[in-house]
C-alpha cells in the first residue's frame, strides 16, 4: 500500500500478513526516484524504463570518459608547450654561452640558474631590438660547428664526448676536432629523431648531469682483495713493530708528560742552536720549491678537470720565450693499493731550440682509503744494498712501469725535432707526504734509464730509505720538513724507539709539579673553611703525592721487563731521502735552513 502525501511525497507501505497489525512503515521520503517509480509501472513499461536507465548510464560514462581524455590532452599540450618554451630558452645565445662556460670549466650545470640568468638578461633588454634581430653577445661564426648546435644538442654532444673519454680510461685526454664533429652530428641526429618537446625539466637536468665532465667524487671503491690484503699488511706490520711492546702497556698520563718533556727540551733556543752553523736556503731554491708545493697541493683536486684548469691558468707562460706551453698529458684522481693518484704535464720546447724536454710528474699523498693501506706497509725491504719502505717502493715501481715507455717515446720524438739529438729528458717528480716519498724513490728509478735526468722534491715525506742510499741522492732529491712534523721522522725503527722511550719515561716529577701549581688555586676556592683549609689541603696533598709516586712506580714496573727484552736493532734505519730543508719556528718568526749534512730520523 502506498500513500501520497499532500506535498507529493510517496511513502512506501508494507502490508503485514496474518494477525500482525497492518500499518505504514514510514521510510525516508524519496523524491523523483526512478527506481521507486518503477514499482508503480506495468511490466512492459517497467522493462522499457529499465533499458532507458541503462542507456542513460552508459551515455553518462562515455561523456565522463570523453571529458577526462580532453583534460589529459589539454594537460599534455600545456606540458609540451612548457617543454618547448624551456628548450627555446636554452637556444638563446645567453643560455648557450652559460652552458658552454660551465661545460668547459667542468662545473656542474645548474639549469635553474641558467633559466633565471637568461630571463633576467631578456628583461634587461626589453625595449631594445628583438632578440632575433639583435647582435649576439658572442659572435657565432659559421665555421664553428659547436655554435650551430641548439642548447639541448650542445648538452647531448658534451655527454657523448664525456662518455667517450670515460670509456677510454683517460678522462683528461684531448678530443680531436674530427671526434667533436662526430659527437655534434650524433647529437643532431638524436635531436631530430626524438620529440624533445615532451622532455621535462628533470630529464633535461639529468642530461646536464651526464654532460658535465668529471664531477667531483670521493674516489673509486677498493676491491675486496685490496681490503683483505691491506688488512693483512697492517696486522703483520703491527705484530712486527710492537712485538712484546703491545698497547696493554699504554698509560695516558705517561704519554702526556712524555710529550710535554719533549716539547720543553726542543724549544726555540734548542732549534736556533741546532741550525746556527747551517747556511740559509737560496731564494731561487725557495721559489722552485714554491712551484713544487703548489703542484703537490693541486694533486689533491677532486678530478682531472680541476687540475687541467689550473695547469692552463698557471703554467702557460715561459718568461724566456724558449719553451712551449705546459700541457696535461696524463691524470688519475683515484688511487688503488700501491697505485697512487697523480698527474703528468709536459713542457714541449720550441722546434730547433736545443732545449731539453721537461716533464713534471706529481704524486698525491694520503687521501683515499687505498693510500692508508699503502702507508701501513711500513716494513723495510732490501733495495740496492740498503732498505726501503715497502709501500713507498711498490708505489714508485708502479710509477716507473707505467710511464717509462711513454717517456722514452716523448724523448725520441723531441730529439727528432731538435738540433742536438742527445738532449736529455728532465723529469721532475713532486709530491706531499706519501706522494713525496714515492716521487723520490721513483726519481732514483728513472735515473737508471739512459737519457733521463730525474729530480724530486717531497714535502713532509716519511722516512723511506737507508742513510747510505739517501746520501747518494742529495744532489737530485730534496725533502722539505715543516718544523716538528712527525711524518718525516717516522719509520718502523723510529716508532719502536719512541714507544720504548715513552714506556721508560718517569712522569713523577712533572706530575708533582702540576700538583704544586694547583694548590694555590684549590686553596683560594676553599678559603671559607678558615684554618681548617690548610690542614685539609696538606692532608689531601700528601695522599695525592703518594698516589702519583705509586702509579708511576707501578707503570715502570709493568714495562721494565718488556723494555729490557726489546731492541730496535732488528729494525732497519730509514731516513728522509736526499737533502733536507728544515722550516722551523724560532720563537719570533719562521726560519729556513738547508741542512747540508744528511737527513736524519730525529
UniProtKB/TrEMBL annotation:
Compositionally biased region (Basic and acidic residues): 35-51
Compartment(s) where it occurs, according to its Swiss-Prot or TrEMBL record: Cell membrane
Ranges of compositional bias, category Acidic residues: 63-74
Keyword Calcium assigned: yes
Annotated keywords: Calcium, Cell membrane, Hydrolase, Lipid degradation, Lipid metabolism, Membrane, Metal-binding, Phosphoprotein, Transmembrane, Transmembrane helix
One BP annotation, GO: lipid catabolic process
EC number, UniProt record: 3.1.1.116
Taxonomic superkingdom: Eukaryota
Protein topology in the membrane: Multi-pass membrane protein
Names of the cofactor(s): Ca(2+)
InterPro entries: AB_hydrolase_fold, DAG_Lipase-Related, Fungal_lipase-type
GO molecular-function terms, A-Z: lipase activity; metal ion binding
Region (Disordered) residue spans: 35-83
Catalysis performed (reactions): a 1,2-diacyl-sn-glycerol + H2O = a 2-acylglycerol + a fatty acid + H(+)
Predominant cellular place of this UniProt entry's protein: membrane
Gene3D superfamilies: alpha/beta hydrolase
Entry keyword annotation includes Transmembrane: yes
Name under which the protein is recorded: sn-1-specific diacylglycerol lipase
Organism: Fistulifera solaris
Amino acid at each position: 500500500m502506498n500513500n501520497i502525501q499532500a506535498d507529493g511525497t510517496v511513502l512506501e507501505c508494507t502490508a503485514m500478513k496474518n494477525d500482525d497489525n497492518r500499518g505504514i512503515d514510514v521510510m525516508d521520503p524519496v523524491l523523483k526516484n526512478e527506481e521507486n517509480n518503477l514499482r508503480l509501472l506495468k511490466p512492459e513499461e517497467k522493462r522499457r524504463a529499465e533499458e532507458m536507465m541503462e542507456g542513460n548510464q552508459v551515455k553518462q560514462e562515455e561523456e565522463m570518459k570523453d571529458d577526462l581524455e580532453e583534460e589529459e590532452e589539454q594537460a599534455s599540450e600545456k606540458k609540451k608547450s612548457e617543454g618547448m618554451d624551456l628548450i627555446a630558452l636554452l637556444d638563446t645565445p645567453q643560455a648557450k654561452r652559460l652552458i658552454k662556460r660551465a661545460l668547459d670549466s667542468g662545473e656542474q650545470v645548474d639549469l635553474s640558474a641558467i633559466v633565471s640568468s637568461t630571463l633576467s638578461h631578456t628583461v634587461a633588454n626589453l625595449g631594445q631590438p628583438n632578440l632575433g634581430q639583435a647582435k649576439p653577445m658572442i659572435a657565432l661564426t659559421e665555421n664553428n660547428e659547436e655554435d650551430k648546435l641548439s642548447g639541448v644538442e650542445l648538452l647531448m654532444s658534451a655527454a657523448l664526448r664525456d662518455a667517450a673519454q670515460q670509456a677510454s680510461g683517460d678522462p683528461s685526454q684531448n678530443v680531436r676536432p674530427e671526434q667533436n664533429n662526430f659527437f655534434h652530428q650524433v647529437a643532431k641526429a638524436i635531436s631530430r629523431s626524438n620529440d624533445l618537446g615532451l622532455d621535462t625539466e628533470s630529464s633535461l637536468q639529468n642530461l646536464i648531469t651526464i654532460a658535465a665532465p668529471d664531477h667531483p667524487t670521493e674516489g673509486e671503491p677498493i676491491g675486496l682483495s685490496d681490503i683483505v690484503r691491506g688488512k693483512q699488511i697492517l696486522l703483520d706490520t703491527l705484530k712486527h713493530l710492537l712485538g712484546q711492546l703491545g698497547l696493554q702497556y699504554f698509560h695516558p698520563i705517561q704519554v702526556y708528560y712524555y710529550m710535554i718533556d719533549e716539547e720543553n727540551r726542543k724549544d726555540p733556543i734548542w732549534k736556533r742552536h741546532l741550525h746556527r752553523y747551517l747556511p740559509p736556503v737560496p731564494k731561487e731554491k725557495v721559489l722552485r720549491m714554491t712551484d713544487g708545493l703548489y703542484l703537490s697541493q693541486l694533486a689533491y683536486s677532486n678530478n682531472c678537470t680541476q687540475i687541467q684548469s689550473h695547469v692552463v691558468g698557471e703554467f702557460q707562460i715561459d718568461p724566456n720565450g724558449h719553451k712551449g706551453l705546459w700541457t696535461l698529458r696524463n691524470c688519475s684522481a683515484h688511487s688503488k693499493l700501491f697505485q697512487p693518484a697523480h698527474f703528468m704535464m709536459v713542457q714541449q720546447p720550441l722546434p730547433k731550440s736545443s732545449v731539453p724536454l721537461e716533464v713534471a710528474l706529481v704524486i698525491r699523498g694520503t687521501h683515499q682509503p687505498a693510500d692508508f693501506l699503502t702507508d701501513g706497509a711500513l716494513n723495510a725491504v732490501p733495495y740496492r744494498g740498503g732498505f726501503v719502505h715497502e709501500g713507498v717502493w711498490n708505489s714508485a715501481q708502479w710509477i716507473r712501469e707505467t710511464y717509462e715507455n711513454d717517456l722514452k717515446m716523448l724523448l725520441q720524438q723531441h730529439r727528432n725535432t731538435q738540433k742536438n739529438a742527445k738532449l736529455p729528458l728532465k723529469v721532475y717528480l713532486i709530491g706531499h707526504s706519501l706522494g713525496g716519498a714515492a716521487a723520490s724513490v721513483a726519481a732514483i728509478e728513472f735515473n737508471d734509464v739512459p737519457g733521463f735526468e730525474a729530480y724530486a722534491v717531497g714535502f713532509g715525506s716519511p722516512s723511506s730509505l737507508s742513510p747510505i742510499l739517501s746520501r747518494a741522492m742529495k744532489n737530485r732529491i730534496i725533502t722539505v720538513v715543516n718544523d716538528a712534523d712527525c711524518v718525516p721522522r717516522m719509520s718502523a725503527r723510529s716508532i719502536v724507539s719512541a714507544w720504548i722511550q715513552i714506556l721508560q719515561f718517569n712522569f713523577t716529577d712533572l706530575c708533582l709539579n702540576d700538583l704544586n701549581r694547583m694548590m694555590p688555586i684549590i686553596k683560594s676556592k676553599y678559603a671559607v673553611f678558615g684554618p681548617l683549609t690548610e690542614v685539609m689541603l696538606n692532608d689531601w696533598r700528601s695522599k695525592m703525592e703518594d698516589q702519583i709516586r705509586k702509579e708511576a712506580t707501578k707503570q715502570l714496573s709493568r714495562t721494565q721487563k718488556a723494555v729490557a727484552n726489546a731492541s730496535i736493532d732488528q729494525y732497519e734505519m730509514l731516513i728522509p731521502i736526499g737533502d733536507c730543508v728544515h722550516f722551523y719556528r724560532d720563537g719570533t718568526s719562521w726560519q729556513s735552513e738547508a741542512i747540508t749534512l744528511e737527513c736524519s730520523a730525529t
